[in-house]
Design brief:
Blueprint: H1 4-24, E1 45-57, E2 61-66, E3 71-78, E4 82-95, E5 98-110, E6 114-115, E7 131-144, E8 147-158, E9 172-184, E10 189-199, E11 205-211, E12 214-221, E13 225-236
Antiparallel strand pairs: 1-4, 1-13, 2-3, 2-12, 3-6, 4-5, 5-7, 7-8, 8-9, 9-10, 10-13, 11-12
């Protein structure tokens, strides 16, 4: 014990200048390194991208007024669904967590439309698929950093099939509604999953065909509405 007290006194004497110097140093707040903080995604800006997906719709139908048999018959067509794909371009504004935007797209659609004429092949009317449609839509979203949940709606135009009666039947007009989720992998590249419902208000088209000196009146009715599920990728400028 006699030796312990002088040692303690000596240590305290040696440490006193160091403690005084440390007390005089400015105090720095304990904050995380700025290099460790990742800023939230800013969705404002132009973007352009590509998409591809699957579309489906109701069957088309054709009615035939047969003057030889004095009756009217109907032939239904198959629309099993198929590929749809194209490109989009748009612009977003972000305010807080809300994102407002406009987008336009143009799509190729091949939904496999066909009609079995069953005894009326001689009228030589054919319907073909592989047509186009497009939309001009507003978007309203809620951003959670790099995830954007949104709803969308606006103007739609085009068509799904050419019914073969009065020429190209892809000039219909209507509306589109949908919703989706978009995720930003980087500050420039995003990917999305989107579902759309489109109604193009297709009208019936009629044509008179003369066969064996008899007038056959043929009326084609195209599907009005169809659904679309697609994935896409965008580059943000």
């Amino acid at each position: 014990m006699r030796l312990f007290k002088p040692v303690v006194v000596l240590m305290m004497t040696s440490l006193t200048p160091c403690l005084t110097l440390a007390a005089d140093l400015p105090r720095q707040p304990l904050t995380p390194s700025t290099s460790m903080i990742q800023p939230e995604m800013n969705w404002t800006g132009f973007y352009i991208g590509l998409n591809a997906g699957y579309g489906w719709t109701d069957a088309m139908s054709v009615s035939i007024d047969d003057p030889l048999k004095l009756k009217s018959v109907t032939r239904n067509g198959a629309m099993p669904g198929g590929f749809a794909g194209g490109g989009q371009i748009g612009y977003n504004w972000q305010s807080g967590r809300f994102v407002f935007g406009f987008e336009t797209d143009i799509q190729y659609a091949n939904l496999g439309g066909s009609i079995q004429w069953n005894g009326y092949d001689y009228l030589t009317i054919k319907s073909k698929d592989g047509q186009y449609f497009g939309t001009v839509r507003a978007r309203l979203g809620y951003a959670m950093d790099r995830s954007l949940f949104y709803i969308t709606g606006g103007y739609a135009y085009g068509g799904l099939v050419d019914n073969g009666l009065t020429g190209n039947a892809t000039s219909n007009q209507g509306y589109a509604l949908g919703a989706g989720l978009e995720y930003a992998f980087t500050d420039q590249w995003t990917a999305r999953l989107e579902g759309l419902y489109l109604n193009l208000d297709s009208s019936a088209q009629t044509k008179t065909i003369i066969y064996n000196d008899a007038p056959f009146t043929v009326t084609g009715r195209l599907p009005d509405s169809f659904g679309l599920v697609r994935v896409g990728v965008n580059y943000k400028f």
